[in-house]
Structure prediction request, 496 residues.
Amino acid sequence: MKSPLAPGIRLFTSFSRDGCYRTFILFLTFLFYTAYHLSRKPISIVKSELHRNCSTASRPADLNITNNATWCDWAPFDQDNYQTLFGVLDNCFLVTYAIGMFFSGIFGERLPLRYYLSVGMLLSGLFTCLFGLGFYLKIHSLWYYAFIQVMNGLVQTTGWPAVVACVGNWFGKGKRGFIMGVWNSHTSVGNILGSLIAGVFVSSAWGMSFIVPGIIIASTGILCFFFLVEKPEDINCTPPQHHSDQDSGEVEPLLQNSPRTVNGSISSEPPAIVEDHTEPISFCGALSIPGVMEFSLCLLFAKLVSYTFLYWLPLYISNVAHFDAKEAGDMSTLFDVGGIVGGIMAGVVSDYTGGRATTCCVMLIAAAPMLFLYNNIGQRNLGTTVAMLLVCGGLVNGPYALITTAVSADLGTHESLRGNSRALSTVTAIIDGTGSLGAALGPLLAGVISPTGWNNVFYMLISADVLACLFLTRLVYKEAQGWCGRAPRVRGFKEI
Prediction:
C-alpha cells in the first residue's frame, strides 16, 4: 500500500506560486517594520536611567560627588527640568518625522521601493547607533542627542509609506482588514522586542540599548535589498483585484489550489506583465479622495494617545508603581500585547461589518473610560495592572492600527482613482503624516503637563480620544445608512 504524503509536504504543496510569494512578502515587510519600531523604542526605556532616584542607588566608594541628589544621573538630564528635556528629544524625532512623512510618500511613488527602504533602514541603523555611542564617548551635549533624533526622524519616514504600498500591491480588498490587522502587529512586536532588548542593557551600559537595535535594523536593510519584490507583476504573479462589480465577490486566499483557466481550459502559463503607465497622484489630488481628510484628522488624535504611551508609559510606571527601569520597561510591553489583539480584532470586525469608521469610533469611545480607570485603579495590584494595560492597549492601538493599514490601503486604491495604482504611497503618507503631528504633540504635552500631575496627562489623553471620534461622525452616519438600507452597503469607502 502506498504511504500517504507527509503532512509537512502536503501543507507546502497546498500553496500556489502566487500564495507562496504573497506569504513571503507579508513576512518580509512585517520583519522590516518590526525593525523600524524596535529601533524607536529604546529611548523610552533609557529615560528612567538617564534621570534616576540617586538616593536608592549604590554609590561607588572612589566617586567624587558634588551633588548627592543627581550624582547618578546623565548630564544634561540631571537638571530639575529633565522631563522638559526628554520632551525636546521626543519632539526632535516626532516633528521631523511628521513633516518628512508628507514628502516621503511623494518620493515613494517615484523611486523604487526596494532601494528606498534599504537606504532608509541602513541610515536608521546608523543614527540609532550614534545615539548609543554618546554613552561610550561620554557626550553630555543636548544638541548632539537632539541632532541625532532629528536625523533619525527624517530617515525613519522611508518605512511606513513604502511597506504599506508594497503590501497594497500584493493584496486586494477581500480580506484586507484581517490580513493587515495581523500584519500590523509588527508595530507592537517591534515595541516589545525593543523594550526587552533595551532592558537587558539599560542598567549596565545604556548605550548598547541603542547600538543593538541599530545593528538589527541595518541588517534588515541589507535583507530588503536582496529579497524584496515590489509588485506581483515583476515576477509574473497574478495582481490582486482592487475593485469588483460585486462588493463581496472578491476572495484572495493565501492558500489557493485551483490552477488558472483560459476559456474554460487549464493554463499553466504565467500572466502577462501589464505595464503601469499612470502618473503619480498629486498631493492635492490624494487629499481630495473621499474619506482621506476625516481619517487623517482622526488619526492625529488617536496617534497622539498611542505615542504618548509609547514614549512615557515606562516612566509613568516607574514613578507611580516605583519599579526600576528594567521592570517598568518589561511591564510596558503588556500595552503592546493588547495592541496586537486590538489591531486584529478591529480588522476582523471591520471586514465582517464593512464599517471601518464605525469600528474605530466604538473602540475610541470605549478607550476613554478605560484610560480613566487605569490611572485611578491600575496600580493597586499586579493583576489589575496587567489586565488594565492589556485592555487599554487593545482599545487605543486598535483604531490606530486599522486606519494606518486597511483604511489607508482602501483609500489609496479608491475607485475614484480609476485604477491608478501609484497613489497608495502618497495617500498613506498623508494619513500617517497627519497622525504623526499628533504623535509629536502628545509626548510634548505630556512633558509639559506631567510636572503638574499624571492625572492631568490622562485627562489630556481622554480628551484626544473624544476628539478623534468626532471627526468620524459623518462617515459613521454614512455607514449606518448603508446598514439600514438607505444607502448601498459597501466595503472600503466606495461612496463616502
